[in-house]
Amino acid sequence: SGVKVGVLNCDVSGGIGMIIGSSKPVDCTFKGDNGSVERYEGKLGKLGVDIGVTNDASMAWLVFAPGKVNKGALRGTYSGASAQATVISGLGANVLIGGFEKSINLQPLSVQGPTGLNVAAGLTSLSLDPVK
Questions:
Q1: Which residues contact 132 (CB under 8 A, 6 or more apart)?
Q2: Would you state the pLDDT for residue 36?
Q3: Are the C-beta atoms of residues 53 and 15 closer than 8 Å to each other?
Q4: CA triple 88-81-118, angle to 5 deg
Q5: Does the global pTM surpass 0.85?
Q6: CA 79 to chain CA centroid, nearest Å
Q7: Are 46 and 80 in contact (CB under 8 A)?
Q8: Which of 30, 99, 102, 108 has the fewest CB atoms nearer than 10 Å to its CB?
Q9: Could you give the C-alpha distances from 6 to 26, 35, 107, in angstroms and in order?
Q10: Are 21 and 45 a contacting pair, CB within 8 Å?
């Protein structure tokens, strides 16, 4: 629920998935519908089955909030259920809910470039901190 306030684009580092999970660094840019631009860094984690190797990828989410968001408002942890299969090239994205009082939704817009061999299912988390 809420109104679209912008788009969050993240570059996700490649990595190796372990049987019970993985954690990969992300470098993100939030472009607000009002023209503002903010940088965030953090981690994209998976808890559950995550087996294999993936290369760098880019992900984009539409950002929905109850209203106008202040600078740094995307700080926090987001989570949601996920499933992904990558064989050479693949897709996998999910709605993530979190931020201030779990009031911000990140809805998948696009996933580009995940290549490798990987199977993942479970809970996905994205933690974001503003870059100063």
A1: none
A2: 94
A3: yes
A4: 20
A5: no
A6: 9
A7: no
A8: 102
A9: 18, 9, 11
A10: yes
- Within the chain, how many helices (H) and strands (E) appear? 0, 9
Amino acid in position 108: P
Q: Tokens 């953090």 map to which residue?
A: 42
Name residues whose C-beta falls within 8 Å of residue 34's C-beta, 6 or more positions apart in sequence: 6, 68
Residue with tokens 């490649």: 14
Which pLDDT score is estimated for 91? Answer: 47
Rg of the chain, C-alpha, whole Å:
14
Give the C-alpha separation, 86 to 36, whole Å: 34
Measure CA of the first residue to CA of the last residue in the chain; give whole Å. Answer: 29
Q: Which two tokens stand for residue 14?
A: 């490649």
- Around 52, how many Cα atoms within 13 Å sit in the side-chain half-sphere? 20
Residue 102, helix vs strand vs coil: helix
As given in the structure block, the two tokens for residue 122 are 């479970």
Dihedral sign of CA atoms 82, 56, 30, 42 in order? positive
pLDDT at residue 126 above 60?
yes
The pLDDT tens digits for 65-103 are: 988 888 999 999 988 866 554 444 444 556 778 877 778
